Amino acid sequence: LLLGKMTLTNNQLCRLGETAVALELMKKGYDVINLNESLKNYKGADLLCVNGAGNKEDIYIQVKTGKSLKIDCGLTADAKTGIIAHLDEKVTCPWVFVHVTDDFKCDFYILTRDETRELLRSAHHWYVQETYSGRVLSKPVRVSVDVPWLEAKDYKATKLHKPFTNTLKKSAKDQWDKISL
Question: What's the pTM value of the predicted model, to 2 decimals?
Answer without folding.
Answer: 0.91
